[in-house]
Amino acid sequence: MNISAKEFDVIVAGGGQAGLIAAIVAAEAGASVCLLEGAPRAYRGGNTRHTRNLRPMHKGPLSVLSGVYDEEEYWDDLLRVTKGKTNEPMARMMLRESAGCVDWLEQRGVQFQPPLGGTLHLGRTNAFFMGGGKQLVNALYRFAENLGISISYEAKVTDIKFDAGRFEGVFIGDEYIAGRAFVAAAGGFEANIEWLREAWGPVADNFIIRGTPYNRGELLKLLLDKGAKQIGEPDQCHAVAIDGRAPKFDGGICTRVDCVSLGIVVNKEAKRFYDEGEDFWPKRYAIWGRLVAKQPDQVGHVIIDAKSKGAFMPPVFPAETADTIEELARKIGLDPQTLKHTVDTFNAAVQPGKFDHTELDGLATSGLEVNKTNWARPIDTPPYSAYSLKPGITFTYLGVGVDQSAKMLMQDETPSENVFAAGEIMAGNVLGEGYLAGIGMTIGNVFGQIAGREAAKYALNK
Amino acid sequence: MRSTSNVDEAARVMTICNACRYCEGHCAVFQAMELRLEFNTENLDYLANLCHNCGSCYHNCQYAPPHEFNLNVAAVFAELRQENYAAYAWPAPLGRLFARNGLWVSIVTALMLGLFLAGGALLTGADFFSAHPNQFYGVISHNVLVTLFGSVGLFVILALSLSIRKFWRAMSLPSPFSLDWSSVRTGVKAALSLKYLDGGNGQGCSYPSEKPSMLRRWFHQATFWGFMLCFAATSVATVMHYGLELPAPYGYISLPKLLGIVGGLGLLVGPIGLLLLKRQADPTIKGRSNGGMDVSFLVLLFATSATGLGLMLISKTSYVGPALCLHLGFVMALFLSMPYGKFIHGFYRLIALVAFAIEQQNHKAVVGVQETNLIELKSVG
Predict the structure, then answer these.
(1) Of A182, A219, A185, whose CA–CA distance to A459 is shortest?
(2) Calpha distance B255→B261 (Å, rounded)
(3) What is the span of the domain harbouring residue B210?
(4) For the domain bounded by A240-392, which CATH number is listed?
(5) Four-residue CA torsion sign, B333, B334, B336, B341
(6) Which of A49, A114, A313 sits opposite B19 (nearest CB)?
(7) In this structure, is residue B182 part of a structural domain?
(8) If pLDDT is split at 50, 70 and 90, which confidence band does A5 have?
(9) Chain A CB contacts of B373 below 8 Å
(10) CB spacing of A131 vs B56 below 8 angstroms
(11) Residue range(s) of every CATH 3.50.50.60 domain in chain A
């Protein structure tokens, strides 16, 4: 930590996409800006480091994006995934603003990837960052440095001076920095297991955090304690079933296990508990975190046979394999007889039909307590493979309320005078539930720009 | 099949990369990786030789150290290349020369310089420091030069050919005569244009720093085309000598001279630029075991060109003798180091790029495959 000046027009807390953009926009407007990143340099960028794309609206081909993705289609998608838990005027404003995201980033050195291989099917809706989110992070930090923004790493805000809706400065331990305006962009609290435990109970100890260990929600808690309006509930989180051997934090994208719809999933009692073939995996992967979280010890095991080899994204850890179901059960610590019974019962219940993983093939089981409604092939061809599953938390929805100028709202719905919020810390205003690929980065981008612009305007008395 | 710690580490890294795939836009390595589920010595040697060590995937990696996955594709493949250059070398025992390559190249260079200076002095006696009417052929006769460089050249061609054949076979490629020529053209074009030093979208690779830059590509092009022009100059001169009975020396406005001068300038600018970039480059992506191979090769190219251009300028003066011997010493050292130094990378890179073009054309893995086992996969952002 070394901040030479002790007073800035704009102080930004959080150095992921939203914070970086807010800082850059404010500096471009002529404000003196200080960016406080809580993580060390190597881990800078919050969860942006783990992201891959954003989802801009576009009325025609845009940079790497093909076709049209207009406001109505986008709004329909958002309405569907949030089941109405959104704020229509704010969301629509955001969708319209998102049309400028790609240009804005490209002009500041961020590179996008032409559609290719695994990203082809999303070439219309999602603009992929070349090399991933860390490339965006690196490019924006370079740009911010060149603009003369004062950047500090390992600079966690420990307190803020905030009275009657008006911000005066931040404390980083003993150090005090005064500011005319403040942008809170320090992410959610998903890496704060203690906080998750308050909402989830002891099961939270078995959660794996897919993203940065630095999103501990300390700033979020500070703002809520100072009277900010709360959005969302603490037990709300985007939870995916990921490989149980994943690191406790920071495992990112590669720990996913994409073969659930090809096999069966059992709990530690070797019993099935949910329809593995309910819908296409991309539409269902985000419910399995919660499903596994509700099982004893928050553990699941997906079991496939040799027919499924190579038909899904290769997982990062090798499967446990065996030539019989009993042996596989012993290897993964399940009761061999029960698992054998579960598999045999499942196999016997499979109805005739033609397997086709590219469509809802209706190949189902019949007469089971929990039927599999698509892609139900018998598990009968050795070698058998098993991957263990645990709930992997991607992000949390709890945040602070904002208005359309990214101004933080207080509990009585009045906007604070000079505190703005952007990114995951306020994403719940637009995305009250569910998820749409690339929407988090879009929210961070749009509200980062608004927060930076409005903060600079306030600080420079314009 | 070779089983080493470098192969194991490369397989570990590729398994993680293959589950992530964020880097697929950067270069051929990741697109080739995506055609595979398992990694073995052959396909890792292939991927390693597709890698141009540009560093983009390292700087943009969410799993780069200090992350516990500790991914550094560029460094892992740099070390694996150093190892497989040795493994594919002919004759096999000489593969050891890749271990402390800078040292052996330096020793050979010193030996060759000594040999030529002593030989030149011996042949010309008291005239070593005199001007000669037929310039450098007055120091060492044309026939002696042809015999000397011809026989070494033949060995070099043999050693290169047999090393390349070994690599070719390891890449499971068919006979060169039954290749699909449009794939070959694609591969050759990717090699000649240094397509994969552009970062994936024309903005350049992360070399020497995290910031995208085209400098490496330009300096490498100056080096490569400089070399090719010098090679062309020698070839043209050979034709003129034997075919047209027009023996050297040639005037400045002659094809060999013009090609040689332009090529020689390329071989000054290119290697100097690459050496300077190398000095600034982030050491983490270089790998631990290059053994001075890159540096010694660049220095040899630079010295060959500098002494060649110098010789041209002073070939009518009394310094022609020592200048010629210096130049010939460097050329001979360059010749000898070709099958056992950095020079070989061009052939393996070209073959890997041709194999890549074939794989992309057919949408399936060819190199290191026992059975084809791929289904089109989609990733969720």
Answers:
(1) A182
(2) 10
(3) 5-362
(4) 3.90.700.10
(5) positive
(6) A313
(7) yes
(8) low
(9) 309-310
(10) yes
(11) 7-235+397-459
Query: Closest Cα of chain A to B62: distance in Å?
Result: 6
Which chain B residues have a beta carbon less than 8 Å from that of A117? 21, 24, 31, 34
- CB neighbours of residue B304 within 10 Å: 25
The answer to whether position B50 is within a domain reads yes
**Which of B31, B200, B378 is opposite residue A130, by nearest beta carbon?**
B200
B367 part of a folded domain: no
Token pair belonging to B277: 């970039």
Environment class of A89 (CB within 10 Å of its CB; exposed 0-12, middle 13-18, buried 19+): exposed
**How many structural domains comprise chain B?**
1
Ranges for all domains in chain A classified under CATH 3.90.700.10:
240-392
Is the CB of residue A134 less than 8 Å away from at least one CB of chain B? yes
Set of chain B residues whose Cβ sits within 8 Å of the Cβ of A392: none
Q: Is A163 exposed, middle or buried (0-12, 13-18, 19+ CB in 10 A)?
A: exposed
Instruction: Specify the residue for token string 């130049």.
Output: B327
Restricting to B residues 58-77, those with a Cβ less than 8 Å away from any Cβ of A are 59-69
DSSP E strands, chain B: none
Q: Which of A111-115, B18-22, B139-143, B294-298 has the lowest mean pLDDT?
A: B139-143
pLDDT of residue A4: 57
Q: How confident is the model at residue B143 (pLDDT cuts 50, 70, 90)?
A: confident
Tokens in use for A355? Answer: 């397997």
Which chain A residue has its CA at the smallest distance from B20's CA? A254
If you count DSSP H runs as helices and E runs as strands, how many of each does chain A have, helices first?
12, 18
The burial class, CB within 10 Å (0-12 / 13-18 / 19+), for B310 is middle
- 3 state SS of A421: strand
CATH class of segment(s) A7-235+397-459: alpha beta
- Torsion angles phi and psi, residue A139, rounded to 5: -65, -45
Look at residue B178 and tell me if it is in a domain: yes
Q: Which residues of A322-359 are buried (b: 16+ CB within 10 A; e: fewer)?
A: beebbebbeebebebeebbebbeebbebbeeeeeebee
Interacting residues of B118 by C-beta distance below 8 A, sequence separation 6+: none
Q: How confident is the model at residue B244 (pLDDT cuts 50, 70, 90)?
A: confident
* Residue whose structure tokens are 């609206």: A57
Tell me what the mean pLDDT of segment A205-209 comes to. Answer: 96
B31 inside 8 A of chain A by CB: yes
Phi, psi of A217, deg, nearest 5: 70, 20
